[in-house]
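REQUEST ID: PR-0412
SUBMITTED BY: lab tech R.K.
PRIORITY: routine
TASK: structure prediction, single protein chain
INPUT:
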Amino acid sequence: MLPNGNLKLIDRKKDLVKLQGGEYVSLNKVESIIKLLSYIDNCCLVADSYKSNCVLLACANVKRIKDYIKEENDENVENPDKLTSEQVFDYLEKNTKLVQKLTKEMEDHCRQHGLERFEIPTRISFVRESWVPDSGLVTDSLKLKRKEIENFYKKNIETLYK
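STATUS: complete
OUTPUT:
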């Protein structure tokens, strides 16, 4: 309620999640800011009301991730441009240093866009699957099907919250 008696709508009720500390997180608001990052094509913020933080499932932009791999100057990778998508995801799974760098960049980006500490995801999991309507994880208009995504990536989410 505003001081003049008007009701201010913040977001749709189904889009708000109350965290353990009592803070409300608008999932779409945070996702729209994170999607501005060049290395993320699509993402789904997961907020558990029994946890004090959020985590992120992200579809990586493979071409941009290859650029980050080039910057790493890893001797184990001869030519990052010739890596297949599967090899890029394998590299991300093995190289926690790069994932930490990308997470830090995302946190800085979120702070620059005015997100509160509790709204910023603390960990990222890059998923191998493309989120297309045929996968059943998004609608025909490419809106996220949150329940399906959370069920499909249940193990990833549990790992992120550990």
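NOTES: Helices lie at 27-34, 62-72, 85-94, 96-112, 146-152, 154-160.
REVIEWED BY: pending
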